[in-house]
Amino acid sequence: MSTRFLDACRALKQRGRERCVFLVIGLPLVFLVVVPLFLLVLNSFRDIGFGEVAVALNKFTLDNYITAYMNPRTWRMLGNSIVFAVGSMVVAFVLGGVMAFLAERTDSPFRRFTYALMFMPLIIPGMLQAVAWVLLLSPSIGLVNKLWSAIGFGTPLLNAYSMPVMWWVQGVILAPLTFIMLGAAFRRMDPALEEAAITCGAPLSRVATQVTLKVILPAIVGVALLQFVRALEALEVPLLLGLSGDVMVFSANILLSITMRFPPAYGLGFTYSITLISLTVFGLFVYQRVVRRGERYAVVTGKGYRPRIIKLGRWKALAVGFQIFFAVVAIGLPVLVLLWASLLPAYQAPSMEMLSKVSLKNYSMVFDRPDMLHMLQNTALLAGVVSVCVMFLALLLSWVIFHMKIKGSGFLDSLAFIPYAIPSVVTGIAFMVLFLAFPNPVYGTIWILVIAYIVVELPYGTRFTHAGLLQVHKEMEEAGKISGASFWRVFFHVIVPIMKPSLTGGGLYVFIISVKYFSIAAILSSSQSIVLSVQIWQLWNEGGLGALAALAIIMIAGLSVLTLLGGVHRIERIVG
Amino acid sequence: MTRTLYVAAIVMAVVVVSLSACGKPAPQPPPTTAPAPAAPSPSPTAKPSPTPLSPSTSPLVKPSPSSPSPVDRQAQLEAAAKKEGKVVLWSPHAKIATKFLAKFMERYPWLQLETWDATGTVLIEKLVSEARVGRHSVDVMAMEEQGVRLIPKDLLAKYDWPSAAKYPSEALEGTEGLYMRDALAFYGPVYNTKIVPPTKAPHSWQDMADPKWKGKTAVPLDADEAPLMLAAMWGSNGKLAWEESFAFWREVSKNTKPKTVKGYSEPTRLLGAGEYELFLWDASSIALQAQLAGLPVAFASVDRFPAAARIKTILKNAPHPNAARLLVDYITSTEGSRIYADVGAYISLNPEAAEALLNRQMKETGTKLYIVPTELESMENLKKSADFWAALLGI
Q1: DSSP annotation string for B26-84
Q2: What phi-psi label fits residue A528: left (phi over 0), alpha (psi between -120 and 50 degrees) or beta?
């Protein structure tokens, strides 16, 4: 009797702890997500101007919705947005997915360099990548097209201002995310399932589609969802390539309504944002349907595992060809154009005349900034704290959702994902209004950026940890619990070590995007909390393409040196 | 558990509503019209007029009843600014400002200059939102006049602008001492001189609608003030020629099918690289800076260009009011305005800075400007212009 009573007490205590964790994550999330979302929805029904984004019950109007949704152009814009997002997602999947497979599951000869290669699109600012492709593929001045016509072809090879090129450029920008997420999933695969299929006589193609693909389905759907929403929200490619090609998308129109119109049309911008959020919620619904029976994907059990390396044999040449194609076309060509641009005071096509104007002035402009050290310290602090906090919270959240299975955890998952769909500029304004509403020591410091970035980047973290945790069987933590380990002991000594590939890969990704995130920093940072992304924007304003290209080349050179010094093994180890 | 979260969400929303309600009341929106300043002449020959001194509203060095001499005033201001130790400048081009303020920093090495750089919209939004809850972190703002007119008046400090005595009277006309016009920027078509010989470049605004430009032009998405500026320039007696302006832009759009681009800086660089032959609407400061960087770009020689003033203003609740005054006094001084005009590629309104680069260039080329009267840039007109622009570009 007393034993049963003690067991019941223990179970109650355990349940209580789990609920406590649920509330510790849930309450701040509710506050930091629901309030901005509420501000957005409420103000989409108001006619407001400067300083009037607030929780106020006046100036109500339906004009924003009438203007936005009674206009046939809006529906064309919606079509453009979806076509652009789906196309970019497919390109990113092909590029990032194949590279991840080659690096993680095959004996491809250049697999070690793949890691460094895949990080390059991540560190080059998106607007710079878009401009580089204009300089390569513009029908008038594109170097590739000029070369094409020089060898006798009349019409340009490709038009930079067309949807297929937009897919390509956005796909290259998104490919690193696919690579990191799918790479982590490939690494955790249990070969027993594949070997069983092969033993039963299944051909490799059948093993790939019926076993491999199905096991990493959560990772695939997670990446697809992230990339679809990321492409919907992307600005650089639609603004630099889409506008000139008459391809208007929602994200560009939101930015136009909120920051480019004078005076701004906040209500209209917020109304358009609601469409983006609705699309995201739909995507999330699909994702949750796919992964609702999580245990089907559990391949990491207590029995030990080691993914089988596939020998490519005669396919090796094709694999190497694909890697070279990616290195030369997706990375090499834009980097070369940027290198050339970084050496000139103002970009002109390569010629003997322009060779005489080559200088390192743009590079000195990058280094010659009095607040450089302060800015780098702020950026390192911001990105470091954000990446650690995001991955810790994301893992807790995934654990609550998939292993504790507390009622309402699906709602929590949706809540954590919604900020990803809110355009950054809207999030920035919402956080400003929120933190101005009550006395706090955070506003105006780097810590408001930390909080905002954690909320905005948590969806990245959860996609990494969801995909990872779905592959981990519950028996691992149950073994810990049975052995008498406490809640946190199981978390830190069982879950965290198993999830290390997802945590480090996700952490690295979150770190890099924290360095690049601009729209929120533009609104929430101050002269005391200036960060690199704001500096990039200032360089763009002051020195334009040349100065910014110089900064990108410095970053690429740093990564290359790290690779040559053997750092690639470290990168590989960190990611894997 | 879901119910707990729903309840939490409602509680949070209620808390935020209550907290917002506890904040200070929102300031009144800016007036949609303002007293009309006569168009200040860009000519440096305009006669300077004495400017009445307005009493200060900030806790700072006040002019004594016996009006201290300029030397005494300066000494008092410096002593007070030294105690403050810092000045904060917000501007869409604040980092550029640090370049032209190098001399200022040399002169006052004990003063720390903090700058903040963002688009005009973000700057104003942040300023107004912070002010609503009684938070004041900025001393001086430098921007287009169109921008300052969207800031509630009660956030701006009245100042006597001692340097204004050297400027044409229009520098302060209609500003109530809340800000000062110290420079101009104009807008118009810019072409690539390497591809288009000067004889083939547009010689009038109507030339821009020539079908020969089809597929060779670009127009900025964010130039939504363009229809208004042309309507003002082509109007008469304070009336806007909306129809003429709208018809012009429709014809240009129909005949040349311009590429829509974002902003001014990058399209100007791409124009120089040969991506387009004619950029239909560029800002003088951007085009001149591109020229100085060696790009083959030049303004087309149309009859007149619409222009808008650049202003400086001190915030009413500036945390460092004396340092703020020291800063604006320097920027509007002969030395400061000359450097400001050269670094920012503006036309200085200070007659003593007539040697500034763009002032000289204007004089040599005989470029004529039309300064858009501020009362025509009302909220209603800006919106009408923006709506037309959005429809024209298919947004």
Answers
A1: PPPPPPS--PPPPPPPS-TTSPB---PPPPP-SSS-PPPTT---HHHHHHHHHHHHHHH
A2: alpha
| Distance of alpha carbon B41 from alpha carbon B370, whole angstroms | 9
CATH number for B185-307+375-392 (one of 3.10.150.10, 3.20.20.120, 3.30.420.40, 3.40.190.10): it is: 3.40.190.10
Instruction: Give A217's pLDDT tier (boundaries 50, 70, 90).
Output: confident
Chain B (105-164) residues lying within 8 Å, Cβ to Cβ, of chain A: 114-122, 124-133, 135, 137, 146-147, 150-152
Q: Which 235-264 residues of chain B touch chain A by CB within 8 A? A: 259-262
Q: Say how far apart CA B2 and CA A4 lie, in whole Å.
A: 30
pLDDT at B31 over 50: no
Q: Is A542 on the interface with B (CB under 8 A)?
A: yes
Q: What is the pLDDT of residues A382-394, one digit of tens each?
A: 999 999 999 999 9
In the three-class reduction of DSSP (H, G, I as helix; E, B as strand; rest coil), residue B318 is classed as coil
The matching CATH number, chosen from 3.80.30.20, 3.90.380.10, 3.40.50.360, 3.40.190.10, for B70-183+309-355 is 3.40.190.10
- Is A129 in the B-facing interface, judged by CB distances under 8 Å? no
Residues composing chain A: 576
How far B203 CA lies from chain A's nearest CA (Å)? 25
Report whether pLDDT(B191) > 50: yes
Residues 43-72 of A with CB under 8 A from B: 49-56
Helices (H) and strands (E) in chain B, counts: 14, 11
Residue found under tokens 């209580």: A16
Closest CA of chain A from B319, distance in Å: 15
Nearest CA-CA distance, residue A438 and chain B, Å: 6
Is residue A300 a part of any domain in this protein? yes
B38 touches chain A (CB under 8 A): no
Is the overall model pTM greater than 0.90, yes or no? no
How far is A542 from A527, CA to CA, in rounded Å? Answer: 17
Within 8 A by CB and 6+ apart from A411, the residues are: B2, B5
CATH number, domain containing residue A271 = 1.10.3720.10
User: What's residue A326's pLDDT?
Assistant: 93
Q: Do A134 and B5 touch (CB under 8 A)?
A: no
Q: Which domain holds residue A221?
A: 71-355
What's the gap in Å between the CA of B164 and the closest CA on chain A? 28
Check whether A249 has a pLDDT greater than 70: yes
- In this prediction, residue A565 has a pLDDT band, given cuts at 50, 70 and 90, of low
Q: Any chain B CB within 8 A of the CB of A345?
A: yes
Count interface pairs A-B at CB distance under 8 A.
Answer: 200
Chain B window 44-83: which residues touch A at a Cβ cutoff of 8 Å?
none
Strands B369-371 and B305-314: parallel
| pLDDT tens string B194-210 | 999 999 999 999 999 99
pLDDT in tens, A132-154: 999 999 988 899 999 998 888 87
Least reliable range by pLDDT among A429-438, A534-543, B264-273: A534-543
Predicted-complex ipTM score = 0.77
